[in-house]
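Record 1 of the preview.
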Amino acid sequence: MDQQENYQKARKRVVSRVNFYVHLGVYLAVGILLLIINLSNSPEVLWFQWPMMGWGVGVLFHAAGTFLFSAGSETMNKMIEKELRKEEESYGVKN
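->
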């Protein structure tokens, strides 16, 4: 791998993380806004939690995709190494 290719991969990971943090920030800002609207218009019924829970699932999937299952993540690297070991064992190659 040359330096340009490494740079592009690193840049892609950084952009992915920044996009996640922007998503998380917007989620929190909208959550606060919905809470304020909810409490000022109908404090007896807390409805703001329902859209925030639905959106929160999306944020969790985004986090998993960004930090657990993206190219270059530690989890993904461990899974690749495990598959390589299985492949080597099936062909009788040992380290």
